[in-house]
Amino acid sequence: MSLSPYALILKIRHFLYDKGIIKTRTAETFTISVGNITVGGTGKTPHTEMLLRMLQDEMRTGVLSRGYKRKGKGFAFVATDSGATRFGDEPVQIKRKFPKTVVAVDKSRLHGIQMIEAMQADRRPQVIILDDAFQYRRLRPSVSILLIDWNRPLNRDRLLPFGRLRDLPSRLSAADIVIVTKCPPYITEQEAADWTEEAGIKDCGKNIYFTSIEYSRPEPVFPEADQRYAYSPRLIMFSGIADDRPMRQYLSEDYEVLMSLKYPDHHRYSRSDIKDISSVSKANPTALVLTTEKDAQRIMERKDIPSELKNKLFYLPIKVNFLFDGQKDRFREQLLASRDTYII
To answer: 128, 230, 308, 318: most buried, per Cβ within 10 A?
Structure first.
């Protein structure tokens, strides 16, 4: 069976790293990579935030991201007042939610790690989470976490451009931990076990965990928003994320979704986009206007948001939870054990 050009390139690339022809380095600091094999939409950001909540009381935390689609270049530390255009929406969101965490961006994770490790010892993170670094092989993490979408098992997908796989499914072997994300919240442990068998990962030799999405009450994007809109039974939704289906499904259970405006992933909103959203909002004066937490980071930067839209513009907070009793504790224990035994 012949390989596609993309599959051949991937096989050659991984062969060069596996054989040591292209060198891989490790960091002095304990590092956790969070990544996927599928293009977008597996929940990397909420799982990174879950790790921060879990570890921030144990050690000083850091996050290193490439800052996807940011305009800035090179290495930079992210501040709570940094803009999403220059630093990327995900790093800015994380810094605003976890102000004590060191958040930095750099296309080269290796260079980024070196810059973070050059910080003063009393401020330097004791753990650095590498966002979307599963394909970055120049740096070998202490622990590699692979996210797989419950709705998109690897054995039912194909490599780009015919499917949504950005890497070879066999690369699952490089992960230390597998998390099946976006699971239905009420599945049983037997249903989860059946899923692993159908997905072909039951005997992969990895610890497999299951998480589901939890949405919270809508929060205002701007401080001048009128909280009464949060209780409106009707809403207009807009988003620029890879997969908005879980959010739309959740909202449709409690709201009458009048319109859903879909934009590309990490979309940079233009004046025309704001006019379109405002126009729909004006046509439905009592409706809540709702977006995602990541989109809110980009919207906050715009200076041309009409006051009428600011009054009713909210975002939907998101986090992830482990599904089954004991999984959270076992996951945490596995991470801490890896940290305690980490040797370069």
So the answer is: 128
- Which two tokens mark 255? 């709201």
Whether residues 130 and 159 fall in one domain: yes
DSSP class of residue 241 equals: S
pTM over 0.85: yes
Residues 29 and 165 in one domain: yes
Residue 128 Cα distances to 3, 109, 336, angstroms: 37, 11, 13
- Band of pLDDT at residue 63, cut at 50, 70 and 90: very high
Q: CB of 171 within 8 A of CB of 136?
A: no
What lies within 8 Å, CB to CB, of 100 at 6+ separation is: 56, 61
Helical spans, DSSP H, in 78-235: 84-87, 89-97, 109-117, 189-198
- The CATH code of the domain that includes 26 is 3.40.50.300
The 10 Å Cβ neighbour count of residue 224 is: 10
CB 181 within 8 Å of CB 148: yes
Closest CA to 239 of 54, 63, 41: 41
Tell me what pLDDT residue 141 has.
Answer: 96
Q: What are 65's two structure tokens?
A: 């991201």
Cα–Cα distance, 130 to 141 (Å, whole number): 8
Rounded Cα gap, residues 231 and 32, in angstroms: 39
